[in-house]
Amino acid sequence: MSSQRTLMCKDLLEAATYGRENTLTQLLGLNGGGSPDSTHVTIEASNNAPNQTENLQSATFMGNTVLHILASNGHAELAQKTYMKDRSLLEVCNKGGDTALHCAARYGHSGVISLLVDKAHELQHNLEDTLRKKNKHEETALHEAARYGCEATVQVLITEDLQLAGEVNKNNESPLYLATIEGHFDVVRLIVQHLCNREITFAYYSGPRRMTALHAAVLRSTKELQSYIWYIRWYGIRLNFFKRPQRKQTGLDMANELLKLDRGSLAKRGDILESTPLHYAASIEAYSMARRLLNHDASLAYCNDSLGLSPVHVAALKGHLKMVVEFLQNNLDSWELLDHRGRNFFHVGAEMPNNIIKQLLKIAGKARSTWRELREVLCKASFTRDNDGTTPLQIAARGGHRRTLRALLRKEWVDFTLTSLDNLAFSYDQSNPQVSQSATDESYEKIYQHYKNLDQVVEAAKYPKNWFHIYSKEQDPPESSDALATKIQTIALGSVLIATVTFAAAFTPPGGYNSTDGTPVLGKKYAFRAFILADVVAFVSSFLSTFFLIHLGTDHSGSFLKRKLATPRLLFATATVCMVLAFALGLYVVLAPIRKLFSIIVLLTALTAAIQYRYSKNSLRWGPHRVAPYIVIVLVALINK
């Protein structure tokens, strides 16, 4: 039942808010009074002057009584006297369903709660029902204290009634979960200490969507650890170098406390998608947290979620290399874990564009013994087929992930008894609609016949072009040794000519020398400095190109020559561009004093020819020759400055 309450007068509201004891004594008569029945608040404004009893039973528009206001503002002694005047006020709820204990807990006034609880015991007031009262969010006072991190308030409430820790709100959040997700380590430790030696249920550490407090600790770990590191880096070193910053407790510390409650189910309990805390750690790359959970229970690595994904699947899905390596090193058989489609972590990684497979294969090629063990695991994983008979190589081809494909197309990482070349080309064709327009069954047959040699496939995969473009070059037979030798001779001849011309130009500068001191006449000109620098770059590039070609002229196999010929070609292209640039600058520095406009036209014409060579179809895709003119101009500008 509920009774009507008058609207609280202004004087009483101000006195309760600011703790004016004399005014409250006058308005409430705190030395006496009875104890009306417990009620919910209904407000009714009155024009009559209120007496002490009416003042005591009055409330604000939101239903807050005098005890609510005193508790919210931390006036402990006045709240105690008011409670002794009318014990029913402790049971009254405002419009939000909050009692005075809720208000005191929300604002961290542990002294108010402590005095009220002690006085209630003296008056033999049964507090169990009062402490367990819930507001409109179905939260007790302990929820409020845990959320806002008031350790002293939590200590009072949980000591008075331990069952409060097992109460959940309408989101199924326990006080322990709220303290963990908000990062209040001291509160977490306090609650765990009280629950350690007792039989507890899921409700004591439950959270929303069937999460647990351990899930919350994982979610807190990465953010807090990073903020602590940045604090040391910026504040500890730059602003407070001689004073060591106090370490902030992280989610890992809270997880260590929560694991004390684990009776075999906390760490393995999944959320609504059956994801365990280790799944969460793998997803957000909480490396230290994952290692702690695995040390606690190694079998956590074998738990699957509702999609059949294990933690190593999740780490591969997110592209977290360090996490995947940690799982594989701690549980060598974790590569055998399959999801609902029969795929291991290698399949999942090949499906994603995060290049996790390429990075794994790269570190597996190292000579350390630990990496050799990982290499064996990856070999087994790369040969596995899923429920549809698809290998990781085919999945990468279907997704069009070229870097993963190039990493997988090595002798130790691919088995063409499981994946034929025509199927591989078809898989890649599915991911490239522009290729499929020109592809036919006959062309794929030619692809298979031409590239059935694995070495040729590996060689072809090094070039950044689409699969069909590589495979359809059956009309271009592999270059013979004679053709490569001819190409080497041609580049060598051009390199020698450029080296000769640029060497001579260095000692015969435009404008000649001064007869008095032997210095160049135009040496102080900006364009002359650019000419000298371009000439030097051209000479050095042509000399290095010639040197490499002489080395290649020794007895080497055809595949070695073809692979190593790219370096002298780049150097030759750079030398050519810089020689043209030096020629243009030489003409400019000579003609500029007499024909300024004509010299500019000559310079622009030569630069246009160099740029045309850089972007022509016969030029290389990338090389120093593409940026050499800009480098020369920038360097000269810096030197001149």
Automatic annotation (TrEMBL):
Keywords: ANK repeat, Membrane, Repeat, Transmembrane, Transmembrane helix
Primary site of residence: membrane
UniProt-listed SMART domains: ANK
Location of the PGG domain: 484-590
Coiled coil: none
UniProt-listed Pfam families: Ank (PF00023), Ank_2 (PF12796), PGG (PF13962)
Membrane-crossing residue ranges in chain numbering: 490-507, 527-550, 570-591, 597-616
Keyword Flavoprotein: no
Top-rank taxon, per record: Eukaryota
Keyword Isomerase attributed: no
Annotated protein name in UniProt: Ankyrin repeat protein family-like protein
Native source species: Rhynchospora pubera
Lineage, opening ranks: Eukaryota, Viridiplantae, Streptophyta, Embryophyta, Tracheophyta
